[in-house]
Design a protein that fits this description.
This protein has 592 residues and is mainly alpha-helical. The protein contains 26 helices and 13 strands. The protein has helices at 4-18, 20-32, 37-44, 48-60, 90-95, 99-110, 112-124, 129-140, 149-160, 191-214, 239-242, 261-264, 292-295, 299-302, 309-327, 331-348, 360-366, 376-387, 409-429, 431-443, 448-454, 459-471, 499-527, 529-539, 544-557, 560-590; strands spanning 64-68, 84-88, 127-128, 164-166, 278-279, 282-283, 304-307, 357-359, 395-397, 404-407, 445-447, 476-481, 491-496. The strands form 5 sheets. Strands 3-7-4 form a 3-stranded antiparallel beta sheet. Strand 9 and strand 10 (404-407) form a beta hairpin. Helix 15 packs antiparallel against helix 16 (331-348). It is globular. 34% of the residues are buried. Residues 72-80, 178-185 and 222-298 have low confidence and may be disordered.
């Protein structure tokens, strides 16, 4: 489901944050789909030790996922060797562009402490609770107790809200493992033994994924017995690795961040150490607790945490739908829809819950604080009015009774996407093109003459607009021949809009625009690099209250030409950042 433009933008961001070597490794992983250490080293031209260090950085920052390759053939098993598969996650890299806006939302709803925890996870990738408490304490100052009790409580709250989750274990098999092996065919000599091995490996994989999902949001506190956490959940336990990768700034020498890579990592067939099993540069002590005590590793420090991007995306979708309802409805309907979204969020956080079915009791419980909806009768009356919402039928009864309702949130999301697509067509092709585009969306299929008549345009204008929209992949064409010769004079040409392809085209265009904006942003920064490096060197290690005075002294030493370049860089950067935020919001809408 990844498009080339998405991958190019993600690679550009990786290069800016971690340097050229990490970008080369990430590019190979993306191009191969699922890669091994040998294929990455061969494709990137880097030595295996450097590739290991780059993979370590990418895994720690959740840009690449690592899976253990299960060998289900008894004849091919090789004791003492373990192979791993690496899969890139470019969508996670692009989701980081939304985190400034999401951090502001967390600050407004949950407070400054929750914002500091989320910000630390964004900057440092995977962290255990001890490192998290240390980092947040440094961010917040001396306002919190030394033992971090308040931070631990806020950490547990974020886990209950599903905004953070356990980092997945590198011991998990790949998600595409749930398919039969291609070598097991009819008449295979070892069919009986092969199927037994496959069933055994399948059961192991199912139990591992079930255990990982069960403990995904479980917080291990000091006063429990550790039963709430499973061991070996992808913990980065090395001291150098935990503190590596600071605030996401440039790191040309990213492959030199970790000093312990080559000898301690078991990557793609390297022999495993007898005491501490190290997989892909991420320490994963034994699942049954045999190796933890020997190495001084506790359960709490073994489990690392990361941002739950899926939860942020779901909340972004709910906020967009709520904003759309508030714009076109009265206050009672808006409060009712907000209660429906709260009930849906509560069901999303429940295991095996159907989020499309919402009961009347759940809605009533969510809007008890609203004066106009303080009884079930008032809620039912408001729901009946909401069922007749003119733009989209997104709430209807489930069966003859009025106790359960079906929430069609996808229909409301599709309506928002189509509205954004109309605006894009108007900006790109003009208001007349928008008229033709909306006409085709409503009428499904039309000939060129019918389009000209209904859109009140001349045939020449209609033909030009259609060809421009067709060249941009926003409209499509059916050819219906009246006879087998396929002569143009004996063929009907029917124009139509495929909404799924059109929304995908809008997303691709937004990725292209975002990539060009990011490249222009890097170019503008490079033009004034000497001045910005001077400013950064002067600010390093200084307090915020003294930075204005230092900046004033630096500007006095700058030449007129340097001042002009610095001023132009500031002005252009503000424009590019504002445009990037708008483009990134459109990408998020079209990616729902």
């Amino acid at each position: 489901d990844k498009v080339p433009q998405e991958c190019d933008l993600a690679l550009s961001l990786v290069e800016e944050c971690f340097g050229d070597a990490v970008e080369r490794v990430c590019r190979i992983v993306i191009e191969r789909g699922n890669a091994t250490l040998r294929s990455i080293a061969k494709g990137s031209g880097l030595p295996a030790s450097a590739v290991k260090q780059c993979l370590l950085i990418l895994i720690k920052h959740n840009i690449v996922s690592s899976f253990r390759s299960l060998n289900i053939h008894a004849k091919r098993q090789d004791s003492g060797q373990t192979r791993f598969i690496y899969v890139a996650r470019p969508s996670y890299v692009l989701s980081l562009l939304n985190f400034p806006k999401w951090l502001l939302k967390v600050r407004q709803e949950l407070g400054e402490l929750a914002e500091a925890i989320i910000e630390s996870l964004v900057e440092h990738g995977r962290l255990n609770q001890s490192s998290m408490v240390s980092l947040v304490t440094d961010k917040m100052g001396t306002n919190y107790t030394q033992d971090g009790e308040e931070i631990q409580r806020e950490f547990s709250r974020l886990a209950r809200e599903h905004l953070i989750e356990h980092s997945p274990s590198c011991r998990l098999p790949p998600p595409w493992f749930f398919a039969l092996d291609a070598s097991v065919k009819r008449g295979h000599k070892g069919l009986k033994s092969e199927l037994g091995e496959m069933n055994n490996a399948q059961n192991i994989a199912n139990s591992m994924y079930a255990e990982s999902e069960r403990t995904r949001f479980t917080v291990d506190s000091d006063d429990d017995d550790g039963e709430g956490c499973s061991l070996g959940n992808g913990g980065v336990l090395d001291k150098d690795v935990v503190m590596a990768g600071t605030s996401g700034g440039k790191s040309p020498g990213a492959t030199r961040r970790h000093r312990n890579g080559s000898s301690s990592m078991d990557v793609d067939g390297a022999p495993m150490d007898a005491k501490v099993k190290c997989e892909d540069g991420i320490f994963l002590p034994g699942v049954n607790g045999g190796d933890e005590a020997e190495n001084g590793i506790t359960d709490k420090n073994m489990v690392t945490w990361r941002i739950n991007v899926d939860e942020f995306k779901e909340r972004f979708k709910e906020d967009l739908c709520l904003e759309m309802m508030k714009d076109g409805s009265d206050s009672v309907t808006a409060h009712l829809f907000e209660g429906i979204m709260q009930a849906r969020r509560h069901k999303r956080h429940m295991a095996n819950a159907n989020t499309e079915l919402i009961s009347l009791q759940e809605i009533t419980h969510s809007v008890t604080d609203v004066q106009d909806l303080d009884s079930e009768a008032k809620v039912l009356e408001a729901i009946r009015a909401l069922e007749d919402y003119p733009l989209c039928s997104f709430l209807r009864r489930f069966g003859p009774d009025e106790g359960v309702y079906v929430l069609n949130l996808e229909g409301l999301v599709r309506l928002m996407q189509l509205n954004r697509a109309d605006s894009l067509v108007e900006e790109k092709f003009g208001p007349k093109a928008k008229r033709v585009f909306r006409l085709l969306r409503k009428q499904r299929v039309l000939e060129e003459r019918a389009i000209s008549s209904n859109a009140m345009l001349t045939m020449k204008e209609t033909r030009e607009i259609l060809y421009r929209l067709f060249n941009g992949h926003y409209v499509h064409l059916y050819e219906v021949p009246r006879e087998p010769s396929h002569m143009p004079s004996r063929t009907f040409y029917l124009w139509y809009v495929d909404e799924d392809l059109m929304i995908e085209r809008c997303k691709v265009d937004m990725y292209e625009i975002a990539l060009k904006l990011h490249q222009r942003f890097k170019y503008e920064l490079s033009r004034s690099k000497d001045v910005t490096d001077m400013i950064e060197a002067a600010f390093r290690g200084q307090q915020k209250n003294t930075q204005e005075r230092i900046m004033a002294r630096i500007e006095e030493r700058l030449t007129d030409e340097q001042k002009a370049r610095l001023e132009r860089s500031r002005r252009v950067t503000i424009i590019l950042e504002g445009t990037m935020l708008r483009v990134n919001e459109l990408i998020s809408v079209f990616s729902l």
